[in-house]
Structure formats: C-alpha cells, structure tokens
Amino acid sequence: MGDPSALFSLAGKVAVVTGAARGIGASIAERFATQGALAILADRTPNVEATARQIAASGGRTDWLAFDVTDSAAVDAAAAEVLRRHSRIDILVANAGMSYELPAIEHTDQAWRSVMSVNLDGVFYCVRAFAKPMLAARAGTIVATSSIAGVKAVRPELHVGYDVSKAAVAHLCRMLGVEWAKAGVRVNAIGPGYTDTDTLAEVGKSRPEVMNTWLGDIPAGRLMSRTEIANTVAFLVSDAASGITGQLVLVDGGYSAA
Ligand SMILES: NC(=O)c1ccc[n+]([C@@H]2O[C@H](COP(=O)([O-])OP(=O)(O)OC[C@H]3O[C@@H](n4cnc5c(N)ncnc54)[C@H](O)[C@@H]3O)[C@@H](O)[C@H]2O)c1
Questions:
Q1: What's the domain count of the chain?
Q2: Which numbered atom of ligand 1 lies nearest the CA of 166?
Q3: Which of 35, 134, 139, 155 is exposed most, by the fewest CB atoms within 10 A?
Q4: Residue 69 is part of which domain span?
Q5: pLDDT digit string (tens) for 101-147?
Q6: Atom of ligand 1 nearest to the CA of 19
Q7: Is 242 strand, coil or helix?
C-alpha cells in the first residue's frame, strides 16, 4: 500500500485559487502552499499580490494573477498565462463569490444579474478555461465553492439569488464530475457553513442577534474556521480523494443535517 500520507501530498502541483486575496480563498491557497503545491492566487483586486507575498514569506511557493471572473476573455487569457508561466495546471479552486442581503421582491434585474454573473457565470468560465489543459493531459482536479445556502433555506438573512447561484454551482459540479469521470478530471463542490471570515465578524459586531440565530442553528455551536474549509478542499484535490467526483461536501458543523 505504501506510505498513505503521500496520498495527501500536493508536492509539485500547480494550483489556481480564485477569490484568493482574502478570506476562505486565501486560506485554501495557504494550505496548498504548505502542502507543497505552487499556489497561484487569483482575484480581481490587486491586493492579491500582497496575500501571495505573505504566504511566500512563510515558506510557500506562490504566484498571483489579477482578473475578473465575470470576464470570460480575461479568464481564458489567465488560463493561457498560467500555462505560459508554469507549463501545466493540476488544480483549480473556483472560489470567488459575492453575497448581499435583499428580499426577493426587491431584486432588480441588475441585482439578480450581478450575483449570477460572479457566483455562477464566473465559476463556469473558470472551470471551462482551466479544465481544457487538464482534459488534454487527462489529469486534474477542480473544486468550486458552493454553500450550505445551496442546499438549505438559511435564515434569518435574505439573498435568494445567492442561494440559487450556490445550488447551481453544486449541480454544475455534479454534471461535470460525471461528464469528465472517464477523462481523468474530478470535479467537486465544497459547501462551507457559516465561516469565521471578516465579513461574518462584522455581522457579529453590528447585528449580534443574527449571529446568535446562526450559532443556535449550528449543532456544533460555533462558526467553521477557514482552516477547516481549506483542509477539506486540500483533501478533495489530493490523490487520497481519487474516488470522489461530482459531490457536494458540506463543512458546516452539522447545520445542514439538523
Ligand atoms: N464566509 C462564509 O461564511 C461563507 C459560507 C459559505 C460559502 N462561502 C463562499 O466562499 C467563498 C469565499 O467567501 P469569503 O467569505 O472568503 O468571501 P470574501 O468576500 O472574503 O472573499 C471573496 C474574494 O473574491 C473576490 N472576488 C469577488 N468577485 C470577484 C470577481 N468578479 N472576480 C475575481 N475575484 C472576485 C473578492 O475580491 C474577494 O477577495 C465565496 O464563494 C462565498 O460565497 C462563504
């Protein structure tokens, strides 16, 4: 059987993570770099360079790219640039996403389009562009970030466009996991529960009653840490998960099970 810990190694892999300037994406990139991958941090904000430098300063190998996932030509160009610089792409985490709060009836066309454009179109454009070299090499793994909001009517906050976009991301991964199952490319979705990010810390300060509703509904009684999400993504893209494709893996402290 050999050394089972080798199955979890990402040594020598070239891994692209979108939405990596901060939050969950930055933690995923950091975890990849810690496990031996070259982590390429991508984000629309140029701050992504500083995040990449921070991770590199603690010993990881990083690179960075600034592009907007809603611009399919820019996404195609970014995939070509990664190939030009590093000759291969082994891992993609399509994580860039946006959220907001709005009752359903108050969604303008523009509000609906903007969330679909980042959370669904952006994920599809990235998966399509970065899967091409993987399919040609008959090897690669993709994870896209969905959410508990894609499987359950979360409360008390209202953002139906976000919820539907995240359900669609999970189904996209199911469909592509099956379509590419014999082509050597695995596709899964990660579904974070309420996670300890700056955005949620802000809610805890400004609206403690909302935070208390969330904490009361999470069987574990706490937010997930960004590291817990990153650990699961690192497992999903590793050879230890070679039999897992087309799945949505929820990391939510039991929220969706209750
Ligand atoms: N924080 C949570 O509790 C939670 C729970 C479930 C799912 N998620 C999902 O996890 C992912 C990361 O969440 P987070 O809390 O770290 O968010 P965040 O807002 O802290 O970070 C998101 C990053 O994505 C980037 N981004 C946004 N739009 C982009 C675009 N068009 N092109 C390129 N980059 C873009 C932002 O610049 C930012 O750096 C998102 O998809 C989010 O929906 C988060």
A1: 1
A2: 43
A3: 155
A4: 9-196+225-252
A5: 999 999 999 999 999 999 999 999 999 999 999 999 999 999 999 99
A6: 24
A7: coil
